Amino acid sequence: MKKLIIYLCGFALLLFLFWLSLDIGILQLHRSIFSLIGKHDVDATTVWQVRFPRALGAVIIGAGLGVAGAVAQGIFQNPLAEPTLIGLSSGATLGTIALIASGTSIYGTRTNIAAAVLASALTALLVQWLAPGKGFGFLLTGIAVSAILTSVAGLLISMSPKPGIQSITFWDFGSLTLLNNATVGMIAPYIEVGVIICFMVSRKLDIYSLGENSAHYMGVNPKRLRLYAIIGLAFLIGASVSAVGSIAFIGLLVPHIVRLLIGPAHRKMLSLSALVGAIVLLLADLLARTLFRPNEIPLGLLTSLLGAPALIILLRVRRASWVSHD
Fold it and tell me: Hey, is 249 helix, strand or coil?
């Protein structure tokens, strides 16, 4: 009953925030949103061509980041594992920028999205190969690789004359400003595939959490499980980063919130992580574009400002479960 109430409240909040995202903006609407359905005037264009894809994109990408964070923490067995920290976002950014800088593709194309997905997967495999061990050894390796890839991406941006390449601020802090209906339509299938793959491995993640040796004896192949999980993460992170840049702390914070609400079972955790991730990103985007109108705060900057203190509080709450006492 408790879980049902949590889901119903979550969906209600998501719908309310979605409506607010369509209704509130720099331009004030003169009619209700429902009266704009099927219309083609200025208000209708503002809602359906500008605000709607941005709100829908926030829901889809937020859900993907929430699921990605939960799977990353499970498969790498580290409560601080997060796509931005372990290098997946930086890999996707570099793959996107490299393709744009070479003139092979432009922002918002399927080729660009595919390159980001592939680069994200290769980065995850590289970090896994280089890491001296699991836990914080893996995390530190991910941070180091992420720093290198971010620097290379910055160099490509500074040297590239291509007009379609975005600033380093866009890729580092993320923004939903460039989303349109076509872009959302292109990234949605990739994120859907990523979510499906993550749900396929969710039950095995529960067994994997007991340790590699135990998982092996219980019929779970750890190497194959990690490979499938990395492919799912690559679809989720690559598609998201190719469209809106890197958005920090969503994938790190959301799984901790969900564990406090319903526990650590991955199948249930992934579904609620998707819902909470969509809510958090939609709320963050709403605040980013309305707090200081007409100026807009970089979305990733706002998620960091809100997410970092919240994470510190959660870490203090959960400290007892992560620290062994003599």
Answer: coil
